[in-house]
Amino acid sequence: MRQKLLILLVYTVCHHATGAAVGEHCKDYGTQFERTFTVPGEAAVLNCSLVSPDVFDTHTTPYNISWYDQRSGTELPGGAGQPWARDTMLWFLNSTLEDAGTYECILRTPSSCFKLASVLIVDPPKTGSCGRPHASIQQLIVNANGVLVCPLLTYMDHVDDFSIQWYKGCEPIHEGDKFAFVGKEKLFLKHVAVNDTGSYTCRMTFDLNGTIAYTAETIEPNVIEQWYQQPIVYEPVNETIKAGYEEHFNKTCRVFVQGKGKIDVDVFWATAVEDISINPSDRVHQAPLSKRNVENGEWLEVIIIFMKLKEEDFNQTYTCMAYSNKGIVISHFVLQPADESFIFLLVLLFAGLVLTFVTSVAAYKIFKIDIILHCRSFFPYIYTRAGSDGKIYDAYVVYPRMCWHGSGGSAEIFALHTLPEVLEKKCGYKLFIFGRDSLPGEAVVESVQENICKSRTLILLYTASTFSNLTSNLHFEQEVGMHRALVEGMLKVILVELEEITDYSRFPTSVLHVKRKQGVIQWWKVNSKRTSHPQLSPSSKFWKQVRYRMPVKSKTTCSSEKNGLLNL
Ligand SMILES: *[C@@H]1O[C@H](CO)[C@@H](O)[C@H](O)[C@H]1NC(C)=O
Ligand SMILES: *[C@@H]1O[C@H](CO)[C@@H](O)[C@H](O)[C@H]1NC(C)=O
Ligand SMILES: *[C@@H]1O[C@H](CO)[C@@H](O)[C@H](O)[C@H]1NC(C)=O
Ligand SMILES: *[C@@H]1O[C@H](CO)[C@@H](O)[C@H](O)[C@H]1NC(C)=O
Ligand SMILES: *[C@@H]1O[C@H](CO)[C@@H](O)[C@H](O)[C@H]1NC(C)=O
Ligand SMILES: *[C@@H]1O[C@H](CO)[C@@H](O)[C@H](O)[C@H]1NC(C)=O
Ligand SMILES: *[C@@H]1O[C@H](CO)[C@@H](O)[C@H](O)[C@H]1NC(C)=O
Ligand SMILES: *[C@@H]1O[C@H](CO)[C@@H](O)[C@H](O)[C@H]1NC(C)=O
């Protein structure tokens, strides 16, 4: 009968058709928003809602209500078959299509008068449908239990007796596994399914002052899928998190709720004592809840933000709570000061690397000669093989020969015996020693130049007196011939000092230049203690130095060399 429709009916009161007495001025409340629907043969009721504290003082002021048919202006009830007025209501017990129209109730108090119009709509029933043409909508939720309420009930307080019968479509509903009747007006549906959609009609039979009447209302429930399961907190995971003092820190609480439709879950951060502030200007606060719908549910996220970590934040338990009608799910984290030992470890590692590097460099400096010699013997293929440069001799040996000063003797022994003994016999170098290898009668200068050209290195042996004597010096210059070779580095020069030298003032600049650049090898130093037995082992320090400066030779190792690296 009554249907709440939020349609604003702008109704203009037609004064000549009004029930108000001539000269009576009633305050007009227009037309009631709610319209009343019925079908022919069934009851309908209009209610004059002017009896309200908003209109007048209903407790202390006496009042009379009169009903008028607005079309005719006649007062109701006017006789047999007319609607009945009872309390604030006007009852149409057996509606006809002609009853449709606007009815006006006028409420009179001793001092005032109010009027309000109500609209009655009488529609013929839809053929082929057992429900009413105007259905109301109620909501049912899938997988939950549901209740439909017959909207007619409010009027049943004013009838003498009534009973309700429910129908789904045209079929009467009986109590059972699916349905139950609750109270007088409610239909209970157990475990609602999608196929529970349909048209539900409550049909009421009532007795009003001895007259039996019928009325009905149809509900077409909106069956919606709405359910969700216990939320799952994916983050935090009851963890301990390390963070540094004064740092910015944040942690997101990530909650997933499986379900469909409206998911009513709240997520927030709290300590054991209180909720975290939601004020974004607080040092520790939580951001607003963000929700993201996915196919099978919803992700909810709330981030807790520490703008700057303070002492008091550590060792504190921060709990994320997901609150729903299924209870509370919680998970927490605890902050701990970042472990400084990690940084310490890094520093240590770095220091270790630096130390290793420094030691390696130092070791290389110290063992350079051994390493190079070792490499030459183990990986000969990476060095240019002898002979590939068209030279014949590995070294051209220059030594002071024209000596009347005594020291020449030892130089000649060294040049003609010691040197060939080690370098030629033991290590396989090919030397050119002037006087031994030069042909007699050869022009000295040409021979020197030619053979130096055929050599890869120049071994220059000298004693303290070698350059002090003008003759010897001249001879030397002549023999060596080429200042260029010495100074311009065209030939590699190995200087071997046979005696301890204190005064270099007489030395030619070219020799001093080479000495400064490459250093000298001092035979007298290693050999001073054992003059009787000259050091002849190729793996002794002296010979290693010589070998290191010598070009790479075709023979890879020296015969008496056991282990070049260990034999320092
Ligand atoms: C009828 O209207 C009055 C106010 O005038 C209200 O108090 C009452 O509840 C209404 N009756 C029904 C059944 O809606
Ligand atoms: C109500 O109606 C009766 C009879 O018509 C009348 O005697 C009475 O004064 C009225 N009361 C008010 C408040 O108008
Ligand atoms: C309503 O009126 C019609 C004829 O006007 C009659 O046939 C029907 O029985 C009546 N219904 C009730 C409930 O009185
Ligand atoms: C409605 O659907 C439920 C499951 O969703 C099923 O158990 C029930 O038998 C169905 N009822 C009808 C009348 O089809
Ligand atoms: C109710 O019925 C009685 C007799 O049973 C009658 O006197 C009275 O007028 C009826 N009331 C209405 C509102 O029709
Ligand atoms: C975290 O601890 C709470 C109780 O404090 C517990 O209910 C929850 O299951 C724990 N979560 C995880 C991921 O262990
Ligand atoms: C959370 O912290 C990360 C880095 O830790 C930062 O990139 C991000 O902007 C922070 N978020 C908020 C809301 O402060
Ligand atoms: C946190 O607690 C541990 C022991 O549980 C303690 O050693 C540490 O000092 C505490 N740190 C702070 C910042 O309170």
UniProtKB/TrEMBL annotation:
Record localization: Membrane
Transmembrane segments annotated in the record for this chain: 342-367
PROSITE patterns per the UniProt record, alphabetical: IG_LIKE, TIR
Keyword Cell membrane: no
Record-level Gene Ontology MF annotations: hydrolase activity; interleukin-1 receptor activity
Domain of life of the source: Eukaryota
Keyword Disulfide bond in record: yes
GO cellular component: membrane
Membrane topology of this protein: Single-pass type I membrane protein
Record domain Ig-like: where: 41-105, 133-220
Signal peptide: 1-19
Key words, A-Z: Disulfide bond, Glycoprotein, Hydrolase, Immunoglobulin domain, Membrane, NAD, Receptor, Repeat, Signal, Transmembrane, Transmembrane helix
UniProt-listed Pfam families: TIR (PF01582)
Family label: Belongs to the interleukin-1 receptor family.
Name the record gives this protein: Interleukin-1 receptor type 1
Source organism (scientific name): Albula glossodonta (roundjaw bonefish)
